[in-house]
Amino acid sequence: MTTATASNVETLLEISTDRKYGSARQMIVYSLWRFKKDEQIKNALIGLLNDSDVSLHAMSALRRTVGNEEAIEYLNVVRDASDNQTIRKQAQKAITKSETAIAKSTRAHPHHGLGTRND
Predict the structure, then answer these.
(1) d(Cα 85, Cα 42) in Å, to the nearest integer?
(2) pLDDT at 119
(3) Alpha-carbon radius of gyration of the chain
(4) How far is residue 77 from each of residues 4, 81, 109, 118, measured CA to CA in Å?
(5) 110 vs 101: CA distance, rounded Å
(6) What is the pLDDT along the chain (119 residues), one digit of tens a residue?
(7) Gap between the Cα atoms of 99 and 54, Å rounded
């Protein structure tokens, strides 16, 4: 088995955005988060949020790419604007997952970044 490297990003993006491959692209789309340092990845994932063949995988990868807080912004737009009921439901589930992860993180690190030390 061979895994993709950063040198394969262009090919992965070509395949993941080519609708002729249909749902066969799902795992490629999901794996794009591994290359989140590449600026093209975020935009490709945002573009795939409304692609019914890979939308769920794009939503998950987007959360891992940009973080839950930023992903919620894009997911809200998809949920509120998509004509596809399945995509709307997937977006709501992804929003709920993001909100849960944010809440867990806040509970685990309640003073993270607040600078509330009493010396």
Answers:
(1) 24
(2) 40
(3) 16
(4) 31, 6, 29, 42
(5) 14
(6) 467 888 899 999 999 999 999 999 999 999 999 999 999 999 999 999 999 999 999 999 999 999 999 999 999 999 999 999 999 999 999 999 999 999 998 887 766 555 444 44
(7) 22
Phi, psi for residue 22 in degrees, rounded to 5: 50, -140
For the chain, the structural domain boundaries read: 11-108
Residue type, 6: A
Concatenate the DSSP letters of all residues of 35-73 into one string.
Answer: GTTSHHHHHHHHHHTT-TTTHHHHHHHHHHHH-HHHHHH
Round to whole Å and give the CA distance between 84 and 34.
28
Question: Looking up tokens 């839950």, which residue turns up?
Answer: 68
| Sequence-ordered list of residues with C-beta below 8 angstroms from that of 42, at least 6 positions apart, any chain | 36, 62, 65, 66
